[in-house]
């Protein structure tokens, strides 16, 4: 005898046919979830890679520590802050850091600290900056400050979504980014910047305000005070037929002092040549008839006409077209001799502020370089040497070129960042 299966009963439950206890009525797939209700969880669904839902039931989280649930975006933002602070944080290091935090307990500050220090630091030199950025990012401790600044720093707050079921009274949590991107970029070495950071740095050059130094003029002008002007006083008395008249005074006026910039474009200065030309462009735009710019390497090239274009990108391209020895060798002594014979002795460097931008690597005779610097110092009002390595930790002026010119310099300044360029402009303005 054949038995046919009984079709399922799709009728609604009745007192005679109650719904079994372990059976739930079907829910329409498009039925909206009530406001405030939690979505249903699937016990057998695997946790996707990188998700964090760690809880610590036995150890309480101290005040200021990270919340129980932390998105990967917060850790990625911390890695980006380290990159802006100058650490070489690559994409591989960020992925390694995220995997390490996923394995450890993300609610413990110590676990996050050591995971980031092991994955994001390239060497012992990065430890100090890592500690400063970590304290500012996770605890809001800005006492030591990742970067010294002269202006108040912007603060960016990013809210964290606490979606863990362990606690419902955690409240809102924020992350404080202590240093703005622009302020951090001002103090970074331009040689290690990425293409994106270099584009941002090019925009920040517009915030520099060069000032031309002033000198006392030979001619005297009428003034309300100063020395007595005998000619004007005597003429005033003659107009009064010998009667006493008002005494006139005069004083010496001021005139802008010429500034000469010599930029080394040899191979060793290639990472800084673009930024130094942008600095020279800003100075030329401030005083087109007062500032003269030359490039030095194996030849001497005057690039002042090219830098007089208002657009900095066009000006730098025009300057690059006229420089034949870009990223070539270095013969500073011979090139300085050509400059003094052709330009300096005739008046360009006479009583001017001369700024030499070079690292001091000399392939030629260092004694010749020292002799030409002594000759330049006798003509110029002030000689300032900008060395990109001067601002780096542990730098000592031991290069043969620097040792030869050091006795004839008025100032030896750093020139590796936008902040150091601003300090150079202050030295030039006060010369």
From TrEMBL:
Q: What's a Pfam family in this record?
A: VWA_CoxE
The record's region (Disordered) falls at 1-65
Q: Which SUPFAM superfamilies match?
A: vWA-like (SSF53300)
Q: Where is the composition biased (Pro residues)?
A: 1-18
Looking at the record's lineage, which domain of life comes first?
Bacteria
| Domain VWFA as annotated: residue spans | 256-423
The protein depicted here goes by the name Uncharacterized protein with von Willebrand factor type A (VWA) domain
Q: Which organism is it from?
A: Kribbella aluminosa
């Amino acid at each position: 005898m054949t038995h046919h299966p009984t079709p399922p009963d799709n009728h609604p439950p009745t007192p005679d046919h109650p719904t079994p206890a372990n059976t739930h009525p079907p829910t329409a797939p498009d039925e909206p979830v009530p406001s405030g209700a939690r979505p249903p969880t699937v016990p057998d669904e695997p946790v996707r890679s990188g998700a964090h839902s760690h809880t610590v039931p036995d150890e309480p989280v101290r005040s200021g520590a990270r919340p129980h649930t932390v998105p990967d975006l917060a850790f990625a933002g911390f890695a980006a802050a380290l990159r802006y602070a100058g650490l070489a944080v690559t994409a591989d290091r960020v992925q390694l850091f995220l995997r390490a935090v996923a394995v450890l307990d993300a609610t413990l500050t110590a676990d996050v600290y050591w995971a980031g220090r092991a994955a994001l630091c390239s060497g012992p030199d990065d430890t100090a900056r890592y500690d400063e950025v970590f304290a500012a990012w996770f605890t809001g401790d800005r006492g030591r400050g990742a970067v010294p600044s002269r202006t108040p720093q912007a603060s960016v707050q990013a809210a964290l979504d606490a979606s863990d079921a362990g606690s419902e009274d955690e409240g809102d949590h924020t992350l404080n980014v202590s240093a703005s991107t622009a302020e951090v970029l001002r103090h970074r070495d331009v040689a290690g910047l990425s293409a994106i950071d270099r584009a941002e740095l090019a925009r920040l050059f517009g915030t520099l305000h060069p000032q031309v130094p002033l000198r006392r003029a030979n001619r005297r002008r009428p003034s309300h005070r100063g020395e007595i002007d005998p000619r004007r006083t005597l003429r005033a008395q003659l107009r009064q037929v010998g009667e006493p008249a008002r005494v006139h005074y005069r004083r010496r006026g001021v005139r802008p002092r010429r500034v000469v910039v010599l930029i080394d474009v040899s191979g060793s200065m290639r990472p800084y040549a673009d930024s130094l030309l942008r600095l020279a462009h800003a100075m030329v735009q401030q005083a087109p008839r007062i500032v003269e710019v030359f490039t030095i390497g194996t030849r001497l090239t005057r690039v002042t006409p090219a830098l007089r274009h208002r657009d900095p990108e066009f000006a730098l391209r025009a300057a690059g077209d006229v420089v034949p020895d870009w990223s070539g060798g270095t013969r500073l002594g011979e090139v300085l001799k050509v400059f003094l014979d052709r330009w300096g002795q005739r008046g360009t460097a006479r009583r001017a502020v001369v700024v030499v931008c070079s690292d001091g690597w000399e392939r030629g005779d260092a004694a010749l370089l020292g002799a030409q610097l002594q000759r330049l110092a006798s003509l110029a009002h002030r000689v300032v040497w900008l060395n990109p390595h001067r601002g780096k930790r542990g730098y000592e002026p031991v290069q043969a070129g620097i040792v030869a010119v050091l006795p004839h310099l008025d100032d030896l300044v750093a020139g590796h960042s936008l902040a150091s360029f601003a300090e150079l402009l202050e030295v030039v303005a006060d010369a």
